[in-house]
Amino acid sequence: MLVLVVCAANLFATWAAWNTHSVAADYLAGLPGVGEDELLAVDDTALAALWVNLIAIVASVAVFLTWLWRARVNSEAMSNVQHRLSRGWTIGAWFCPVVNLWFPRRIMDDIWRASRPDVPPNHYAAESLPQSPLVRAWWLAVVVDYAVQYLHRIQSRSSEVTLGSIKTQAIYSTISTVLVVVAGVLLVRVIREITGWQAAPVGGPQGDSSGPRPELARPRPDWGGERRS
Question: How many other CB atoms sit within 10 Å of the CB of residue 220?
Fold first, then answer.
């Protein structure tokens, strides 16, 4: 739900950006009824959109990283697949520059692979298992959005506030929002898929005919899961 809230917050921010451009254009054109009060009003709306976006992002990141950590612990208990990165990177990879361009996808890929109900009992190498097209598409949208925001920051530093720069900002906001919505929808599907696998009972309908390893308990997603002898 919080991922979808972030998508809605981005849509609100994009509407606010285009609204600012529209009011500024009317003001410069000297249209009646559009004065400094209207300019201040759209500035307040844009600021409100910024705060709504920030609050939604902080809340969703906190909940998502909590889910990701538990999913990682669960996946380790469910199969013998060796994750390519240690547990600490499950959180740290998102905040470490440069590596945050590919480590998070690697972490999600390994969790997805290790959580699959059809993983062979004695399989250890994550690289040899099939990758998730959903994870791949989700991360592609995230990285492209990173690039769009980076280009926007560079251009914003070198230009004055004009009607053209306001329009450029609205265009960048539109592109970024489209990417955020695409990434958000894909992420929701990935979360539901992994959670569904991890919440399935032992020998349940989502497992394969051989079922999970007898020495491993199918962990509850809200408890982390532990090995049982």
Answer: 12
Burial (CB < 10 A; 0-12, 13-18, 19+), residue 98, is exposed
Contact 80, 120 (CB under 8 A): no
Phi, psi dihedrals of residue 216, rounded to the nearest 5°: -115, 140
Contact 107/67 with Cβ under 8 angstroms?
Answer: no
Comparing C-alpha atoms, which of 133, 132, 131, 140 is closest to residue 183? 140
What pTM does this model have? 0.81
Q: What does the pLDDT look like over 66-100, one tens digit per residue?
A: 999 999 999 988 888 888 999 999 999 999 999 99
Cβ-contact 58, 64 below 8 angstroms = no
Q: How far is CA 135 from the centre of its chain?
A: 11
- What letters, b where the CB count within 10 A reaches 16 and e where it falls short, cover 152-178? beeeeeeeeeeeeebbbbbebbbbbbb
Residue 117 and residue 86 in contact, taking contact as beta carbons nearer than 8 Å: no
Cα within 13 Å of Cα(120), Cβ side: 8
What CA–CA distance (Å, rounded) separates 78 from 73? 9
At 91-140, the pLDDT tens digits run 999 999 999 999 999 999 999 988 888 877 666 666 667 788 999 999 99
